[in-house]
Amino acid sequence: MSKALNATTPGFPDIPSTIVRATIVQASTVYNDTPKTIEKAEKFIAEAASDGAQLVVFPEAFIAGYPRGYRFGIGVGVHNEAGRDCFRRYHASAIVVPGPEVDKLAEIARKYKVYLVMGAMEKDGYTLYCTALFFSSEGRFLGKHRKVMPTSLERCIWGFGDGSTIPVYDTPLGKLGAAICWENRMPLYRTSLYGKGIELYCAPTADGSKEWQSSMMHIAIEGGCFVLSACQFCLRKDFPDHADYLFTDWYPDQHQEAIVSQGGSVIISPLGKILAGPNFESEGLITADLDLGDVARAKLYFDVVGHYSRPEIFNLTVNETPKKPVTFVSKSVKAEDDSEPQDK
């Protein structure tokens, strides 16, 4: 249950506010070992739940891993066996949705009574999608969001999500949704989430830059929502050895303890206040108590899809129809004009 806090203003009656304890897990994947990655996730979820967390958010591609530095042997007009085999191993670590790993994550959410947002690599046949998975505290898989626009070289190894997986779930904690990494730079994508009334805006990411913090602050203020940005913290030693990897280390000493993904996970209120983080130092938990009354307080002055919009000038249409590359139509009843000619 969410907690209630009485907010008293002189001249007004007490109005209970809903308080939600939210936790971001900032940690590295166990690369090439999905079962151990899920075991690691459960340990962090157990720790968060023991501290009262009701919502737990993981980074982008936590299941199977963000392929930072991987090149898959790709160059213009270049194909090679080493790159193909690297993709084969990466594909093997990805999960089918729904599937046994999704069932396991749902059971973990139920066990610890938390709403869970998990970044994962999803495989649909042999195409991979960068996906956010949503689970209820009762252990129900709510659904998923597939990243609609992979960035840079991601486009060579990941598919593109369509408008059918841009959900915002109306939960007892608040309206919950996600934008993955640089989707957060897409104004129209953000607006689609605002239009669905998002209050708990999850931003799983692989961007640990200082500039990213500015984007998260802007979105919290623009959307009048809580922003929970979850990024992995990884050292060079967390990745499998491979001569073709190209890391941009955050620090010049390129030894095994060198940081290659520096985290920066942060929780920001609709009023633009940093509630927890950013953590650029280590793996760990970033936790804050969210007063959902701040959503209304923020929207007094600015409601981007409400009183501060001008729909007679600007409007957005979102196509939520699933886009399938192949559609099969079965003819179950013979059409009239296909029947045998009748004698007159």
UniProtKB/TrEMBL annotation:
Which residues are named in the active-site annotation? Answer: E60 (proton acceptor)
Q: Where is the CN hydrolase domain?
A: 20-292
Q: Which CDD domains match?
A: nitrilases_CHs (cd07564)
Q: Which keywords does this Swiss-Prot/TrEMBL entry list?
A: Hydrolase
Q: Highest taxon of the source?
A: Eukaryota
SUPFAM superfamilies per the UniProt record, alphabetical: Carbon-nitrogen hydrolase
Q: Which GO terms describe its biological process?
A: detoxification of nitrogen compound
Report the EC number(s), separated by commas if there are several: 3.5.5.1
GO-annotated molecular function:
3-cyanoalanine hydratase activity; cyanoalanine nitrilase activity; indole-3-acetonitrile nitrilase activity; nitrile hydratase activity
Q: What is this enzyme's catalytic activity, as reactions?
A: 3-cyano-L-alanine + 2 H2O = L-aspartate + NH4(+); L-asparagine = 3-cyano-L-alanine + H2O
User: What's the family?
Assistant: Belongs to the carbon-nitrogen hydrolase superfamily. Nitrilase family.
* Full protein name: nitrilase
